[in-house]
């Protein structure tokens, strides 16, 4: 796991010092080594930088940038099947001087070209410079585990693992994107390809980008998409056959992710996903797997005791830590640095804490993200269907929403008498516009509805297209459950969950690996009948049945809690000073992006017991902390 950064300057106004600053801004991603490639060409400058966290081949032979013939590569991530690819290349006459996957990728590219990406099983952000064709190609892994940002303006093309690298280039213009701002206040994250800055983009998962230096042409293309997986014909196999093949793929995915030249552990929450990963690994080993969990003193949020029971049953080497409010307060000032665009998933706090706990004993930790999106684990899938059935019975829904759009509880001053009027009004308006269960699912996840954003946040009103809009590309014959899981994969999972895990683990130089996001598993499970995912209301039916072979049902069968924190109490108590500071009217006025009066009012209502405003208050606080760090 590493950090990459680079640029092509068509104005030749950069230098190696800038490249080093861009790269070293991500020291936390790769503290073990650094490398830089800089060249003054006839009509441009090119720079490639790399920070290394040594996982495979700890020797200097794994140093990057790495060269072979006309190619230079920098690479962040792991390719788990590199040994098989290396064997294929050796049959073609290639020889190798290292035991690293980087050298395998580089020589695979020289042999198969861009098509080599289809052979890779892993998580990766790859940049390859072809000095003869004068072209840079970027690749991002299928599931989007590893991030890639890119920027192009006024003859300067840049790319990096994190946005903070761009700040180190003197020609980067920090202009807030109205589209990115509006999306953040709706979802609490910014869906790809948007970012918080203008002219700055996320490379979409499963995509490649080609930058032709001679004419400054940028072309992005898709090489893999979960939509295509779901659109394939369903498999005509029995439940037992489905279970056997799923278990085989799960085992293979887990074993692949244990390949390392450093200690490896597992995040264990005590839920089905992490218990399945831990059980599959421990069942084939005599040595104890190292497992880690974080707990809370507040019982309603605590799963640590469940994780401890699972760890004791499986016989792992378990470490747990109970998070106190003061631990969270200590983390709060660091959030804006490591999550260098606004990000409001409050579970980033315990994820950072459990990553710090694991880093004391291991350099790699497996995480079990993706199980809910793949096997149907979220209750929202069932609730969305019920809401769709209920609201579809309303006659003249579109006409009603059209009338309501012209009204505003704030302009009618209803809030003074009925504080909850705005919240209920905008939520109902949002629901009236929903056409499918997937639309309801997206609506549930919004902190501010799009109508509220128009009123309260001075952001763009133009239409934007995100993974939520990919619903139209899904086959009409698919079940509502399949459609919701596919859209969830392309939105909440990629841009919220995976962002959270990458930034949290990398904040302490810990490599996080995701076995449930192995593309072979995704391609297979997406073709199974949805009744194997939610059966008679039993969510994650197939995965649960497999897990019960290794862990007794009574240790796991309980209501799903999710990985959340007692945020409401912490905001009122431990975070209170931060809340009051960042909601000062003068600070809210500073950037001219908010309706200051309404934002202050939301904060005051929350502190007076209106807990339904928790998400809104937290989202504004996160943005204010980000602005303070990166825009002053």
TrEMBL record:
<feature type="domain" description="Glutamine amidotransferase type-2">
    <location>
        <begin position="2"/>
        <end position="214"/>
    </location>
</feature>
<dbReference type="Pfam" id="PF13537">
    <property type="entry name" value="GATase_7"/>
</dbReference>
<dbReference type="InterPro" id="IPR014729">
    <property type="entry name" value="Rossmann-like_a/b/a_fold"/>
</dbReference>
<dbReference type="Pfam" id="PF00733">
    <property type="entry name" value="Asn_synthase"/>
</dbReference>
<dbReference type="GO" id="GO:0004066">
    <property type="term" value="F:asparagine synthase (glutamine-hydrolyzing) activity"/>
</dbReference>
<keyword id="KW-0315">Glutamine amidotransferase</keyword>
<dbReference type="InterPro" id="IPR029055">
    <property type="entry name" value="Ntn_hydrolases_N"/>
</dbReference>
<keyword id="KW-0547">Nucleotide-binding</keyword>
<dbReference type="InterPro" id="IPR017932">
    <property type="entry name" value="GATase_2_dom"/>
</dbReference>
<comment type="similarity">
    <text>Belongs to the asparagine synthetase family.</text>
</comment>
<dbReference type="InterPro" id="IPR006426">
    <property type="entry name" value="Asn_synth_AEB"/>
</dbReference>
<comment type="pathway">
    <text>Amino-acid biosynthesis; L-asparagine biosynthesis; L-asparagine from L-aspartate (L-Gln route): step 1/1.</text>
</comment>
<keyword id="KW-0436">Ligase</keyword>
<dbReference type="InterPro" id="IPR001962">
    <property type="entry name" value="Asn_synthase"/>
</dbReference>
<protein>
    <recommendedName>
        <fullName>asparagine synthase (glutamine-hydrolyzing)</fullName>
        <ecNumber>6.3.5.4</ecNumber>
    </recommendedName>
</protein>
<keyword id="KW-0067">ATP-binding</keyword>
<dbReference type="InterPro" id="IPR033738">
    <property type="entry name" value="AsnB_N"/>
</dbReference>
<dbReference type="InterPro" id="IPR051786">
    <property type="entry name" value="ASN_synthetase/amidase"/>
</dbReference>
């Amino acid at each position: 796991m590493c950090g990459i950064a680079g640029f092509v300057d068509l104005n030749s106004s950069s230098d190696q010092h800038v490249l080093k600053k861009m790269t070293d801004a991500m020291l936390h991603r790769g503290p073990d080594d650094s490398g830089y490639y800089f060249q003054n060409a006839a009509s441009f400058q090119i720079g490639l930088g790399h920070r290394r966290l040594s996982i495979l081949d700890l020797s200097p032979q794994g140093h990057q940038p790495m060269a072979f013939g006309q190619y230079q590569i920098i690479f962040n991530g792991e390719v788990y099947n590199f040994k098989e690819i290396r064997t294929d290349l050796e049959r073609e006459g290639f020889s190798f001087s290292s035991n690293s996957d980087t050298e395998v990728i580089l020589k695979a590219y020289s042999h198969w070209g861009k098509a080599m990406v289809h052979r890779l099983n892993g998580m990766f952000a790859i940049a390859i410079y072809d000095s003869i064709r004068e072209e840079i190609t970027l690749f991002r892994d299928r599931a989007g585990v590893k991030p890639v940002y890119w920027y192009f303006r006024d003859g300067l093309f840049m790319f990096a693992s994190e946005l903070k690298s761009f700040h180190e280039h003197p020609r980067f213009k920090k202009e807030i994107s109205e589209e990115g701002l509006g999306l953040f206040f709706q979802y609490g994250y910014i869906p790809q390809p948007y970012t918080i800055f203008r002219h700055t983009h996320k490379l979409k998962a499963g995509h490649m980008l080609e930058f032709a230096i001679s004419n400054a042409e940028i072309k992005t293309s898709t090489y893999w998409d979960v939509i295509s997986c779901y659109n394939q014909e369903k498999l005509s196999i029995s439940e037992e056959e489905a279970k056997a093949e799923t278990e085989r793929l799960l085992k293979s995915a887990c074993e692949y992710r244990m390949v390392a030249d450093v200690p490896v552990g597992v995040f264990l929450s005590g839920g089905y996903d992490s218990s399945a990963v831990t059980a599959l690994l421990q069942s084939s080993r005599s040595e104890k797997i190292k497992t880690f969990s974080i707990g809370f003193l507040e019982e309603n949020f605590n799963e640590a005791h469940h994780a401890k029971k699972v760890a004791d049953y499986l016989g792992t080497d378990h470490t747990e830590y109970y998070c106190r409010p003061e631990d969270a307060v200590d983390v709060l000032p660091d959030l804006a640095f490591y999550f260098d665009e606004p990000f409001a998933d409050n579970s980033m706090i315990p994820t950072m804490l459990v990553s710090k706990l694991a880093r004391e004993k291991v350099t790699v930790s497996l995480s079990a993200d993706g199980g809910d999106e793949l096997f149907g684990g979220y209750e929202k899938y069932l609730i969305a269907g019920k809401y769709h059935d209920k609201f579809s019975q309303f006659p003249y829904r579109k006409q009603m929403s059209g009338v309501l759009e012209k009204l505003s509880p704030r302009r009618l001053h209803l809030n003074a008498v009925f504080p909850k009027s705005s919240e209920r009004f905008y939520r109902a308006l949002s629901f009236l516009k929903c056409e499918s269960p997937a639309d309801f699912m997206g609506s549930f996840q919004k902190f501010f509805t799009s109508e509220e954003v128009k009123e309260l946040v001075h952001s763009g009103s133009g239409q934007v297209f995100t993974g939520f809009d990919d619903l139209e590309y899904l086959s009409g014959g698919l079940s509502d459950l399949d459609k919701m899981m596919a859209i969830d994969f392309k939105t909440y999972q990629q841009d919220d969950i995976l962002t959270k895990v990458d930034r949290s683990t990398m904040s302490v130089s810990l490599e996080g690996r995701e076995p449930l996001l192995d593309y072979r598993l995704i391609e297979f499970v997406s073709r199974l009948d949805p009744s194997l995912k939610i059966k008679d209301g039993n969510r994650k039916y197939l995965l649960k049945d497999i897990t019960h072979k290794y862990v007794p049902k009574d240790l796991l069968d309980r209501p799903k809690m999710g990985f959340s924190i007692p945020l409401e109490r912490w905001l009122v108590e431990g975070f209170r000073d931060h809340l009051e500071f960042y909601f000062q009217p003068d600070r809210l006025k500073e950037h001219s992006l908010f309706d200051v009066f309404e934002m202050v009012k939301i904060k005051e209502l929350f502190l007076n017991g209106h807990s339904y405003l928790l998400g809104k208050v937290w989202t504004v606080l996160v943005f204010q902390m980000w602005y303070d760090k990166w825009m002053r």
